[in-house]
Predict the 3D structure of the following.
Amino acid sequence: MINPADVINPTNIQEAAHRIQGYVRRTPVLTAQETFGAPIKLALKLEFLQHAGSFKSRGAFHCILRSQVPEAGVIAASGGNHGAAVAYAAQKLGHRAEIFVPTISPPNKVERLRQYGATVQIIGNNYNEALAASKERAQVSGALAIHAFDDPLVLAGQGTLGMELEEQEPELDTVLIAVGGGGLIGGVAAWYQERVRVVGVEPEKSCSLFKALEAGHPVEVDVSGVAADSLGARRVGELMFPIAQKYVSQVVLVTDEQIREAQRILWQNYRIVGEPGGAAALAAVLSGAYKPQRNERVGVVVCGANAELTSIPVTAPIRTSEPTTDVRAAGLGR
């Protein structure tokens, strides 16, 4: 049995960062004077600017670069973002890609997969059903299967976001991260360990990590809601779970309405188009689901931008004052 500490730790994450350098962007951090009533210092990690629109490209590139890819190429199952990252990385590295997505995947995400040259299979009503179909196909084709979150190479790749954020914002007290299967929070928690509080944020209707921590082991949960395409894993990853038990401070839950409000705030105040899963961590701050200490330095990962433009809620009254912001760590790379 794999010991996660042997393959997902700061040393492995540093090695992953070196390996994927030049393939992924160093995404900027935006610090805002406006903190929406919370007594905090707020920093937004703008990971939605990553290649393919999410942090998933970090793990996808690392897994492919560390692996012997067969002639059949790579295969993955995804609600959309992991598939886009795998397809993008495969295209850049000269490999074939076949991506399995469930019927709940938004059309824009499916179209993005095709734009990256992937063969797309739309199978199943949810991620788990698409994953089962992809495993069967991989056995027949011989393609390299890249799991969205339960793969040590993927976890180490996602952990590079934590390493990068610490370089950009070394004084953070807390980092809030949206959770689906747990690949991002597992990698980031493995990087920070106990130096910074790592807090998970899940939708009330898709809360696999919250329920797993309650039970003491991963369990299957029902998934639905506005963020189900990106945060709708029925079961949290086996590899990341012991990391979460040790290093994730807490998990808080947000409603669909609170996620929608976070999307609106991102658009109204910063002109950021965030998908529901990408806005979920900010929703915890805006709604009070996460209750910070006064003057706490809070980092929020805005992790996905693959939203349908028509789905962004913009109907609330326009604010009369613009927030004061400072964007640092530019140099988006290629």
Notes: Confidence is low (pLDDT under 50) at residues 317-334.
